[in-house]
Structure formats: C-alpha cells, structure tokens
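FORM 12-B: Structure-to-Sequence Request
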C-alpha cells in the first residue's frame, strides 16, 4: 500500500474527496480517486448507519483498518470511525502492535458491517487505529483514512480473514476475483471491481500468469526485464529468472538496488535529463519514444508461452516542471526497491501503479493467477496529451516571493537537501524518496504549501512466511 507523506501539508488545502461521495452504479464497482497518478483511494463505509471513508485498496497487504481517533484525523481534517455511533459494532479485547519503518502502531480490533461497491459483509473483523502517539506520523500524511488489503490471508495480522474471503464466505460474490482499472492524468474514472472484470476497460484478451506459492503477495515469474530503443537493447536482466510483485499500493516501477544504476544510465545517457539527488527528470520531446527507451517485461504465461509487456516513455514518465526557458521536464517513474524486497538467489521487481495504469489487471485468488490486458485509454496514453493537459492548467512553481523558475529550483534543491538530511535521520534508508511535485498556486499559501513528497513502503520479506514480517505502509 502506499500512503503519501506531505512534509509541507499542501494536501490540507485540497478538497476532501469524500465531500463528493458516489454510490456504486454497478454492484461491486468501487469508485477510486486518482491522486497525481501515484496514489489511488476508494470509497468504503463501516457501521450502522454507515460511516463513510476513503481507503487505499492495496494488493500488497491483507488487513483492513481505519482511523478511529480524532487526533489522528485532525491534521487532514479527515473523518474517523466512531464505534459508539454504530449499533452493529462489536468490540474485541485484543490489541495488536504493527511495526512500520516509520514507527509502530497499535490497532484495537472490532467487528462490524463493512460496505464497498454496493456489497456488504457482516461481522467483519478490522483494525481501529487509535494510538495517536505511535500512529500520528503515519496517518498525518495518508490521503485516505485507512487501508483495505487485497492480498492473501498469509499476510494478515490478528488472525483476521481477508475482505475477499469474507465476501465469498457470505455468498456476496461467487468467486474470489477482483480487477483494478487505473486512469492517468485525470482524478476520476478509476475503479476496483469486486467479484469480476469489466472487459470494456481492456483493448485485448487477458493473458494469465501463475502465482508463485505459497500465496501471500501477488508474485509472478519474470523471465526478462530490458530497455529497448530503436530495436537496440540497451539493458537486459533476469536471464536466470526474477520475480515480480504486482502491488497497487506502490507507485512506479521498483527495481533491485544492484541494477538501478545500469537501468538509469540507459534512460539518461546522452539524453536531455537532469538529476536532483535521487530524483531524475527528462525533457519532454515531440516524440518521447524516439528520444527515450521503452521498458520490455517478459513473463511466462500459465500455458508456458512468453508474453511481452511494453511501457513506453509516456507510460513511465510524468510531467513535472518547466525550467526558466519554459521547457517541460518529466519525472522518471522508477525507484529502488526497499532492502526487504528480496528472495534468495533471485531479484525482485515491483510492478506498481505505473504498470497497472497501462495494463488492466485481474486478480484471481481461486485459481492462483493474475491476468493482464492492455487498458483502454490509459494503455495508449501519450505524452502529447499529457503536455496538452499540463499546458491547460499548469502548476505555479513559485515560492511566495520568488519570481523566476530558476530561483525556484535553487530553493527546491535547498529544501530537498534539508528534507533529505532530516528524513535520513528520522526514517530508515529503505524508505526511498521517489517523487516531488509542486502544487498549484491556489493550493499554496506559502512556502509550506509548495512541495509534495512521497515515500515508498516496504511490503516485507518475500520468503515463505508463517506470519507477516513487515506490513509497512507504502510511504
């Protein structure tokens, strides 16, 4: 899962997405809000009468929990679950301590009615985040009010059943299947479909890939990861085999530390790109594919064929800023995996929202497989459209009284260095700064409302598990 950390609290001035609550028009469809193409938050309700929230639908974890403390909700003016207002809530005497890279959080447990996409489950056990001292930093920067895990039971804390398991056990759905469709460059249109798929979101038939057992995360075999430009292979890896984790809570493409520099070099070398610390930006051109390489990902299908998935530069780069000459630069959506993402003898890649926006994905728990099909619109996303949208409503990158973009970047770099030093002291190195995006002038009243930074979570050790090793947030 991935929560957003905003050190400058720019998000506090954004309109609450739950102000425009939308009931599902089709059973099982959960409306999902797109935050800056990196975080996707969906509608859910808990209790009787229903208390409405937005949560992260996360294939990289398996528990459900929400804010249940006004102190935790206060920084973002968020709603919180009030158990005393629910006639169907049943408290549990147990607490459970969950550890994160950024600290720990104590969850109290209880059971209640939980609704998503027009579906309801009863007596569903979930966590209530109410230990403000331990959890304050975590929830302070989460766009939503909680997390709904869509992984397997092996990842759960507190001996809980997963939401998908309970939907099936209570005969709400006929098969343990769900699908995720993510839009690009627009805040609306994304969805999670519980219990099935909507082929209208795909431009082709699904290709299916077996999960590696024992099932915990959604892990598949990857036979090759390469960068190709004008039919020339600039980088290739996984000749002896790799694994790929499909994680809706992770932004961008995660790569092994050992291969990161070589991949980055293939993207940046002799190209019009600039770097600020661990953040890399490349000049937007009229033909991005002609200028920059594409990612090629090969996987063995369930019938032992080889399927190839392509991410064009327009799929893995995102409009970010203009320099003082008005030239648009795009952020390179690639990150180093946290150290905990490993398997003995094999490297692991993370297929986050960058991949899921391009390929509509079906998650099949019953048959232990995952299916990919090129998504409509998002799969054909091109940078011309991105640049057009950016030009229509460009963000204002000025600090309060800074006149030029050049001056802005001096300030940006200085602030980034300070943030980096502070974060290095407070947060373990496995939490990797991967995205900085400036907010529009209407969302910024001062320096403290200008930069939006996010961190990538650790999802745990991908060795066979008997209990979760780390359920850290995708920060």
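FORM 12-B RESPONSE
SEQUENCE OUT:
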């Amino acid at each position: 899962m991935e929560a957003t950390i905003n050190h400058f609290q720019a998000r506090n001035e954004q309109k609450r997405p739950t102000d425009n609550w939308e009931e599902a028009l089709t059973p099982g469809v959960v409306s999902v809000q797109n935050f800056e193409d990196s975080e996707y938050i969906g509608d859910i309700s808990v209790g009787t009468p229903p208390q409405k929230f937005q949560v992260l639908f996360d294939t990289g974890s398996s528990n459900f929990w929400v804010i249940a403390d006004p102190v935790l909700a206060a920084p973002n003016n968020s709603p919180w679950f009030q158990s005393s207002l629910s006639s169907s809530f049943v408290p549990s005497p147990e607490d459970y301590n969950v550890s994160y890279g950024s600290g720990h959080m104590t969850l109290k447990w209880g059971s209640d009615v939980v609704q998503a996409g027009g579906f309801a489950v009863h007596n569903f056990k979930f966590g209530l985040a109410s230990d403000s001292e331990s959890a304050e930093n975590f929830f302070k920067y989460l766009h939503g009010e909680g997390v709904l895990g869509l992984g397997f039971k092996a990842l759960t804390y507190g001996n809980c059943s997963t939401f998908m398991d309970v939907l099936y056990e209570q005969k709400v759905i006929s098969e343990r299947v769900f699908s995720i469709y993510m839009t690009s460059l627009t805040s609306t249109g994304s969805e999670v479909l519980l219990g099935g798929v909507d082929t209208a979101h795909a431009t082709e038939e699904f290709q299916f890939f077996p999960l590696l057992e024992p099932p915990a995360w959604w892990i598949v075999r990857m036979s090759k990861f390469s960068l190709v430009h004008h039919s020339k292979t600039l980088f290739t890896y996984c000749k002896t085999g790799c694994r790929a984790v499909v994680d809706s809570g992770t932004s961008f493409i995660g790569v092994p530390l050992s291969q990161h520099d070589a991949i980055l070099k293939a993207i940046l070398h002799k190209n019009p790109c600039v770097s600020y610390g661990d953040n890399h930006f490349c000049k937007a051109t009229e033909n991005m594919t002609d200028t920059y390489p594409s990612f090629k990902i090969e996987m063995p299908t369930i019938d032992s064929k080889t399927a190839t998935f392509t991410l064009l530069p327009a799929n893995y780069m995102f409009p970010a800023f203009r320099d003082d000459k008005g030239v648009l630069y795009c952020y390179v959506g690639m990150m180093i995996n946290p150290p905990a993402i490993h398997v003995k003898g094999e490297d692991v890649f993370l297929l986050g929202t960058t991949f899921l926006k391009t390929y509509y994905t079906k998650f099949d728990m019953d048959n232990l497989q995952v299916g990919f099909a090129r998504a409509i619109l998002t799969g054909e996303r091109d940078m011309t459209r991105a640049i057009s949208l950016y030009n229509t409503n460009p963000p204002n990158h000025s600090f309060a009284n800074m006149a030029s973009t050049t001056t802005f970047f001096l300030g940006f770099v200085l602030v980034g260095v300070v943030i980096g030093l502070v974060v290095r002291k407070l947060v373990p190195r496995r939490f990797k700064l991967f995205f900085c995006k400036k907010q529009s002038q209407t969302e910024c009243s001062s320096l403290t409302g200008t930069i939006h930074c996010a961190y990538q979570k650790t999802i745990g050790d991908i060795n066979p598990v008997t209990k979760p090793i780390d359920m850290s947030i995708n920060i």
